[in-house]
Design a protein that fits this description.
440 residues; Rossmann fold; Hect, E3 ligase catalytic domain fold; 4 domains; five-stranded mixed beta sheet; three-stranded mixed beta sheet; 13 helices; disordered N terminus
């Protein structure tokens, strides 16, 4: 048994391999254990503990098992290390300094590798530091070279990472990777952008449509909502990409143009959803003319040239019956304008609207009375009851008042107030090419 002092040597066998690409050629942990166990048996080395670790040695103090080994050396559990090579111990100055410091204190007497031995004397410690420093230098240079290579790829327009959905990585004859469209998936991704840009399709509607056409991720799974939004926000699809803090023009074939991408970004700027609190009053009185589906609404934002953001409420087919429905959206302002023009043809529930109107007058009179401190001054006439069935008979004058009230709420009412008065609309409308049509 080897020894450098009168104290017997007791060893810790340490094996390490990193999962990083710069250590792919390093011997596996099992290989290290096998070789060092054979060496220990041959030289009759007393191994007290075996420690293995799958961790990078680039950064100081980040290896739990290595730290455990140094603590045991400091406590005197063993005073020597057997390992495959010096760079298994350290590839950074901080950890190397801790090892050499233990040797200086006389707590670490020997480090044995498959081809060398480093004892506690100046020359061998110096050689150990040179070999570990050389491993650090190689590691640093390798990182610099890798970053330089990635920047060079970016400069020639090649995105240095895995191709996004709709594209595949392809090796050219000169072993340079390029990104090319994947025929089937690229067509579907292109359609997805067009549906959002031109039809205002929401992320959830896109997810349903992708599921219907059988679109899967590269791992064979349905796309999650977050993955869909990530794809829709990726500038790679119109020909640009960002690496680090710099933008590059790609040499790959774009699936869409910049105008379509910008439209999609506007469509994605929706208000945070508050479930069961969103009020879209015109949904229940309209149907889609093309497919007969229901109408839904979404709040979108448009950015002006001077940077101001303006909200707009759009109504459109929910495309649940037909994902390929071509009916375009219509703004709420345009819808109200057309509804007012059609008022003479609209059938209204006069009794329901009269009650709403009366309640509104009561509220107004109560407010006026409070302001004048005369609660009993203004009194609304009580509705008459007819002998036939308790239904109030609405006079021509009262009907005109109801229509005026209806128009007032349509133009100036809050969404909840509009929803209330629209409940009194008995006419069903069809939405066709941004126009309201009265259904037969």
């Amino acid at each position: 048994m080897e020894q450098t002092t009168n104290t017997p040597l007791t060893y810790c066998l340490y094996a390490r391999k990193s999962s990083e690409s710069d250590e792919k050629q390093a011997m596996s942990i099992d290989g290290q254990l096998r070789e060092m166990s054979d060496l220990a048996k041959r030289d009759k080395i007393n191994v007290i503990e075996v420690i293995t670790e799958s961790h990078s040695a680039k950064e100081t103090g980040q290896r739990p098992q290595f730290n455990h080994m140094l603590e045991n050396i400091n406590k005197g559990k063993y005073n020597a290390i057997i390992t495959w090579a010096p760079d298994r111990i350290s590839r950074n100055a901080g950890d190397l300094g801790r090892v050499v410091d233990l040797m200086d204190q006389g707590k670490l007497a020997l480090i044995k590798t498959h081809s060398q031995t480093f004892s506690n004397n100046p020359n061998e410690k110096f050689l150990l530091m040179i070999l570990c420093s050389q491993a650090k230098l190689e590691n640093d240079n390798r990182g610099i070279n890798v970053k330089r290579g990635l920047r060079n790829k970016c400069e020639v327009g090649i995105r240095p990472s895995l191709a996004p959905l709709g594209y595949i990585n392809q090796l050219k004859a000169n072993r340079i990777s390029e990104v090319v469209p994947e025929p089937v998936k690229a067509t579907i991704i292109k359609q997805m952008f067009q549906y959002v840009a031109e039809k205002g399709m929401s992320g959830r509607a896109v997810r349903k449509w992708l599921s219907m056409v059988g679109f899967k991720s590269k791992s064979g799974k349905d796309l999650s909502l977050s993955r869909i939004y990530e794809t829709l926000k990726n500038p790679f699809y119109y020909g640009e990409f960002k690496f680090g803090n710099k933008w590059y023009k790609g040499t790959h074939e774009p699936l869409i143009n910049k105008q379509t991408y910008d439209k999609v970004q506007i469509q994605l700027q929706t208000t945070p959803k508050q479930w069961n609190k969103q009020v879209y009053p015109f949904k229940k009185i309209c149907k889609c003319w093309s497919c007969g589906g229901s109408i839904t609404a979404e709040m979108k934002y448009r950015v002006t040239k001077n940077g101001e953001v303006h909200p707009h409420l759009y109504y459109h087919c929910n495309r649940i019956k037909d994902y390929n429905c071509q009916e375009p959206y219509i703004t709420e302002q345009e819808l109200i304008k057309q509804l007012i023009a059609l008022l003479p043809q609209i059938k209204l529930d006069m009794q329901y609207l009269w009650n709403l109107f009366q309640n509104e007058i009561k509220r107004l009179n109560h407010l006026k009375a409070i302001m004048n401190n005369k609660v009993d001054t203004l009194i609304v006439s009580s509705p008459h009851k007819s002998k036939e069935g308790g239904i109030k008979v609405i006079s021509i004058r009262e009907a005109e008042m109801i229509k005026d009230y209806f128009l007032h709420i349509l133009q100036y009412g809050a969404p909840e107030e509009r929803q209330n008065v629209l409940t009194g609309v008995e006419t069903l409308f069809l939405l066709k090419e941004r126009s309201l049509i009265i259904a037969n």
